[in-house]
Structures are given as C-alpha cells and as structure tokens.
Design brief:
- By secondary structure, the chain is mostly helical.
- It has one domain.
- The protein is built from 15 helices and no strands.
- α5 packs antiparallel against α6 (104-131).
- The longest helix is centred in the C-terminal third of the chain and has 30 residues, at 224-253.
- It is globular.
Length: 337
C-alpha cells in the first residue's frame, strides 16, 4: 500500500507541476488577480470530479468522506488559510512539489507549517470552543439522497456550472493555454481513483502531514488530537513524499531544477531582500497550516476532495479562503518595487 500511495502522490505532483499550479508566481498571481490558472483548474476539477464521484459513490464503488461543518473553524480557518496562501504563495501540497524543484522559500514554508501544526495541537484544547458549532456532515447526498435520478441530475448541473465558471474566467483572462483544463480533468480522475474502495478508500489531502510530523519530531504525541491524525497524517506524509519526488525528478529531467528563494513576482512587489522573503515564508507557512487545521483541511483535502463531494463545509471553506486570499493580496502586495 505504501508504494501505491507514493505513486498516487507522484501523479498528484506531476499534474500540478504540468500546469504550474504549484508555482509561487501563479498562486501569488491569483491573490492579486493577475493569474487565474489555479482558480480555473480548481473549478474544472471540482466540476468534473463532482459528476464522476457522484456516479462512483452512487454505484457503491466509493464512500463519502465529508468533513463536518464546524462553523467557526470553516469560516475563520478559511480566512486565515487564505491569508497564509497569499503571503506564502503555496498550498500545503504544492510546498512539497516546489521544494522538489529547488524553491528554498517552499522549504522555509514547510518549516513554518510544521511549527504551525505543532502550535495548533498544543492550543486546540483551549480554542476548541471557537471552532463550533458543529452543523454535521452536510452534502448534496445528505440533502437529496444518492439513490434517485434527481441526485445525479443535480450533480451534473452543479458540476457543469463549475466548469462553465472556469471557462468564463478563462475568457475574462484572455488566455489561450488550456493546461489548467487538462490538469483539472486529471485531478478529478485521480480523486476518483483515490476515493475508490479498491484503492485507498479516502480522499486526497495534505495539511494533516504538518501537525503529524511536527508532533512526532517534538514528542507531543500523548494527546487526543495526535491519536486522531496519526493514521491520515502518515498517509499524507507518504503521498506528499511522492509529490516531492515528482517535483524533483521531473524538474531534473526537464533541466528546470533551480535553487530559488526570490521569485519574480515577489521581487516585483516586495524587493530582493533574502531575509524578508525567509521571514514572510516562515510566517505564511505557519498561518497557512494553522488555518488549515482549524478548518480540518486545505486546498486538496477540503476544496478539491470536499468540493467534489459537494460538501457544504468544503464549499463554504473555499469561499472564505478566496476572501482571505484576495484581501491579503490587495494589501500585502500593494505597490510595485
């Protein structure tokens, strides 16, 4: 099973790398509304995945793994996650891929994320009241059921609207490159494979890796939270190792591996100070993972995996992530150096 997870992680990394969805310039570009690639790929993946997963689950080949709607955690965690994503320029999963490509700021973000995960574990008992109330696991399936034709029809309609929105953004952007669409299709297919009861019977995820590793490294393992995340954290660590290998191997084969700290978009808005980039990368990584753990997931585990299940918690999380991302982008990247 370890090799299966590793291979799935490798494909995940390869897909994101193919469309440059892991790159700092692309993700930070979305924060300042100069690059819609990530948004388009996510919309396409969620839309296509929602249709594919609805049939896979409806016919009994996969199970639902909907995250509970913890109102405080989803909304506040989403805003914090979006802030971290804008500042750092990476997501929990893309950090591993970009580190494999030689991005030092991604490594610094990973270290910040490990501390963020550890601090969340330590603070959880005292902030748990902020995460609620828990409205339960709400999805299209729980609202209309998954046995009638209405469920499949609604899945197709909602999924189609997501894809149409992606094409509308593409038209608005005036882009002629459709790598985002191919990546979205590939991510949807990958999710179908990962969800399958015959493969791993779980969703794709990434952020649980950080508190899992952070807690292990510091010996903070005698608590209820670590017991809860131990199994998914171990799975995601292997998965992200595969993603890291994809970033490393593919960049070496394509002769694109390059040790980089200051990316062009950062230099344009924030200058060339290495110390400044390191500080903000660490801070962004910390904020990113702390917000993800408040919400119980991240871009891959919540927005993609949850969105494809048409889970209310994940769709609302996605909205608040983009609010936090765009607000932070507007103020953090103000002016040009």
């Amino acid at each position: 099973m370890t090799y299966t997870i590793l291979i799935l992680g490798f494909f995940f990394g390869a897909i994101l790398q193919y469309a440059s969805l892991n790159r700092f310039n692309v993700i930070s570009g979305l924060a300042i509304l100069e690059n819609y690639t990530v948004a388009k790929a996510i919309l396409a993946a969620v839309g296509i995945g929602a249709v594919l997963l609805s049939f896979e689950m409806g016919f009994g080949y996969a199970s639902y793994h909907v995250k509970p709607f913890l109102v405080g955690g989803i909304m506040l965690g989403g805003l914090i996650f979006g802030m971290g994503m804008a500042i750092l320029g990476y997501c929990p999963g893309t950090l591993a891929i970009s580190f494999g490509e030689g991005s030092i700021d991604a490594l610094v973000g990973i270290i910040g994320g490990l501390l963020g995960g550890l601090v969340f574990t330590l603070l959880l008992p005292s902030i748990s009241s902020l995460l609620g109330p828990d409205l339960g696991k709400i999805s299209l399936n729980t609202i209309v059921g998954s046995t009638g034709p209405g469920f499949y029809l609604l899945s197709v309609i909602i999924g189609g609207l997501f894809v149409l929105f992606a094409f509308w953004l593409n038209k608005k952007e005036g882009a002629k490159d459709y790598k985002w669409l191919y990546a979205g299709i590939a991510l949807a297919i990958l999710e179908v494979v990962v969800f399958s009861s015959a493969v791993t019977n779980r969703p794709v995820g990434a952020s649980t890796t950080y508190p899992y590793v952070g807690d292990l490294l510091t010996g903070v393992t005698q608590n209820d939270y670590f017991a809860k995340i131990q199994k998914p954290g171990s799975w995601e660590l292997i998965f992200l190792t595969g993603a890291f290998l994809a970033g490393l191997i593919i960049s070496l084969v394509k002769k694109e591996f390059k040790i980089t700290l200051i990316h062009s978009n950062w230099e344009k808005y924030k200058g060339t100070s290495a110390a400044k980039r390191v500080l903000w990368s660490f801070t962004g990584g910390f904020i990113l993972i702390f917000g993800a753990r408040m919400a119980g997931g991240c871009t891959s585990g919540h927005i993609l995996s949850g969105g494809m299940q048409l889970a209310l918690s994940s769709l609302v999380f996605g909205i608040f992530v983009f609010i936090g991302l765009l607000l932070t982008g507007k103020f953090f990247y103000r002016g040009v150096k």
